[in-house]
Amino acid sequence: MNTRTFVSLAGAAVLVAGCVVTSVSPFYTQKDLVFEPAIVGNWINEKNGNEFWRFDQGPDLSYRFTLVEEKKATIMEARAFKLHGQLFLDLFSLEQDIHVIPAHYLLKVSQITPALKMAELNEEWLTDLLSKNPSALRHHFIKTGDRPEDRRLVLTADTPELQAFIVKHLNAEGSWKDSFELRRDSAPVKTVQLKGQL
């Protein structure tokens, strides 16, 4: 999944099948939370010069995360946390529509400076694992189209179960997609019309 796809998913809280793994429960507990000041600031995706990531400090060890494109911006809450010394970000849609279950997205952070380098769970790897062993992690496939492959994976496990699974497979081959990289941008984020108050 490229970050352009990510912003459309996060902003609308509508996911494209086979693109990203989401969870109905957070991947962190309060005791896992950390605050990394170096994450705060503006970041740019060098592969897409019209895409900016902005992290502002929020309350209670949170970040206000804004993903800016040419004519729109999407606002989410981000939480940094550590499991077994590994830093992660949990991105959470603040969509309050009663018809939408807010989703948590997990990113593994491998570097903060001088560039922010992150990777997401590999949906293909996880789907294959759960197809072979459905009891490995509680989940549900939601049909999104007419074809058998038109479905998306939603994790329904609670936080302790999610964390145990992540730790167990932290270094499993293929469990994470290739990292994408953002560089720090000193220029002001462009003024855009916010897409809702997510």
H/E element sequence: HEEEEEEEEEHEEHE
Q: Radius of gyration, Cα only, in angstroms?
A: 16 Å
Overall average residue pLDDT = 84
| Biggest sheet descriptor | 8 strands, antiparallel, barrel
Structural class: alpha+beta
Uncertain residue segments: 1-18, 191-198
- Our count of helices gives 3
What is the molecular shape? globular
How big a fraction of the residues is strand?
Answer: 35-45%
What portion of residues is helical?
A: 10-25%
Compute the separation of the termini in Å: 21 Å
Strand arrangement, largest sheet?
A: 3-4-5-6-7-8-9-12
* Count of strand segments: 12
Task: Note the topology.
Blueprint: H1 3-12, E1 22-23, E2 33-34, E3 41-45, E4 48-57, E5 62-68, E6 73-83, E7 86-93, E8 104-111, E9 115-120, H2 123-132, E10 139-143, E11 151-155, H3 159-168, E12 180-184
Parallel strand pairs: 1-11
Antiparallel strand pairs: 2-6, 3-4, 3-12, 4-5, 5-6, 6-7, 7-8, 8-9, 9-12, 10-11
